[in-house]
Design brief:
This protein is α/β, with parallel strands linked by helices. 29% of the residues lie in helices and 28% in strands. The protein is globular and about 60 Å long. It starts with a helix and ends with a helix.
């Protein structure tokens, strides 16, 4: 398929900007790169590259070494606000994807890119990990891989989560990542593999536990505010089972119900609070979802309505959002009482942007606290 003017124009802009991006990323993270002998960064043939999603900038780090810049699947929200709207529409090669649901248009965009000779990059988890371990990968991803019919490369990103935890509001120093590229499936193998075989190959190459990796390398990431923001992802105290009782400051946090105090050390591990990592803590709080469902909590935020057709976010204004008895009560710039059962496609983007569909409208609330709690009371998938 012939490349259009937009493809050519973006290719030139990316070629001009690439040296600057290299400098920017070197300042962001120290980067260690590994690859097997079948991965050629200069290859011209199209391919699909899959990577685990550990922190915000891995969408830049992962494709940077390839001479031909891939089309990247990115959240629809990137197309609705500046400056990311300008970046994804005028400079970068990005194919929009609505998080939380399958998207035929996304698949068509990827097929078009491959047929035009371009590689494509997909982060199949759909979102950055909040807890340090690879999230669920939908079976639709493996179906898409078979449909594309090109070589399947993988990049396992290691160290990104603990360098820049998604929930953290405090910065870490000495940030570093390892990028491990492998040829997972050759195109001539795809037709003979079942979906389960494809899934096994890809998951074996992508599944990652950043805490287990850190135990091997013990790379320090010092900082003065290592614990701040943790209350946005943990919501049940493992000592007293208090709900939304965790408060953080500096490198420490405590439970307001029982008074127990813990810390986050310079290696990213939790100290003196039952669990040494957030993976174990999250498994515990998931087993106590009934406590969260029966609780009542409230936070503040700013409400936007997202219009996919005109690709804009429309500011509604400041609101409070209170959860009680399976209903979200929104007050302030707008008044809504939304039963949890009527909500679909709920997600958290960036650090704590709570998005969901209700009565055909996409709502986006930039909440001040309790992002994970809101996400978990309206769905059980993520």
């Amino acid at each position: 398929m012939k490349r259009n003017r937009t493809d050519i124009r973006k290719g030139f802009i990316l070629w001009v900007l690439k040296p600057l991006v290299y400098i920017w990323m070197r300042l962001d993270q120290k980067r260690y790169v590994k690859r097997d002998e079948n991965v050629d960064f200069k290859r011209k043939e199209p391919f699909v590259l899959l990577a685990n999603h550990t922190f915000l900038f891995d969408i830049i780090h992962v494709p940077l070494r390839f001479r031909r810049v891939p089309y990247i699947v990115g959240s629809q929200t990137l197309f609705t606000k500046q400056p990311t709207k300008f970046l994804v529409t005028k400079i970068a090669r990005v194919i929009p994807k609505s998080k939380g649901k399958s998207d035929v248009l996304t698949a068509k965009g990827l097929i078009r890119a491959v047929r035009s000779g371009y590689p494509v990059l997909i982060f199949p988890e759909g979102d950055t990990t909040f807890y340090g371990k690879t999230n669920l990968i939908e079976m639709s991803t493996y179906k898409l891989v078979k449909t594309l019919g090109v070589d399947v490369l993988t990049c396992r990103v290691k160290g990104g989560y603990l360098s820049k935890p998604r929930w953290a509001t405090g910065k870490r120093k000495r940030r570093a990542i390892e990028l491990d590229y492998n040829m997972a499936i050759r195109k001539d193998e795809l037709a003979g593999l079942s979906l389960e075989d494809v899934a096994d190959r890809i998951e074996n190459n992508l599944t990652h536990d950043d805490y287990a990796y850190q135990k091997e390398v013990m790379r320090p990431h010092p900082g003065k505010r290592l614990a701040e923001g943790i209350e946005n992802v943990v919501y049940v105290c493992p000592f007293c089972e208090g709900v939304n009782s965790i408060v953080s400051k500096g490198n420490t946090f405590h439970c307001e119900t029982c008074g127990k105090e813990g810390t986050i050390d310079r290696y990213g591990f939790v100290r003196n609070f039952v669990y040494s990592d957030l993976i174990g803590w999250d498994a515990f709080q998931r087993s106590r979802k009934d406590l969260l469902d029966r609780s009542t909590f409230e936070t503040t935020g700013t409400l936007f309505h997202m219009d996919v057709e005109d690709q804009n976010q429309h500011l509604i204004g400041p609101i409070s959002i209170r959860y009680a008895d399976y209903v979200l009560h929104i007050r302030g710039s707008i008044e809504l009482d939304i039963p949890v059962e009527d909500i679909s496609n709920a997600t958290i983007t960036l650090r704590r942007d709570f998005g969901f569909n209700y009565q055909g409208r996409m709502h986006l609330i930039k909440v001040d606290r309790y992002g994970a709690s809101l996400l978990r009371v309206v769905q059980s998938k993520y």
